[in-house]
């Protein structure tokens, strides 16, 4: 992840595969702290089922 204001690298994310045709990708994040991190990075919860889905 790159902060827009100064282009500094501030984090990374692990993906479980390539994006699908709609641009969705599954991450290895779980837990409350990870959800708060996704929100701070601009993601919003998209769908809730057996797992949570987030979209940017």
Automatic annotation (TrEMBL):
Source taxon at top rank: Bacteria
Annotated protein name in UniProt: Uncharacterized protein
Source species of the chain: [Clostridium] asparagiforme DSM 15981
């Amino acid at each position: 992840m790159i902060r827009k204001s100064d282009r500094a690298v501030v984090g990374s994310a692990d993906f479980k595969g390539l994006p699908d045709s709609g641009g969705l990708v599954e991450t290895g994040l779980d837990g409350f702290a990870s959800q708060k991190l996704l929100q701070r990075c601009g993601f919003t919860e998209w769908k809730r089922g057996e797992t949570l889905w987030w979209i940017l």
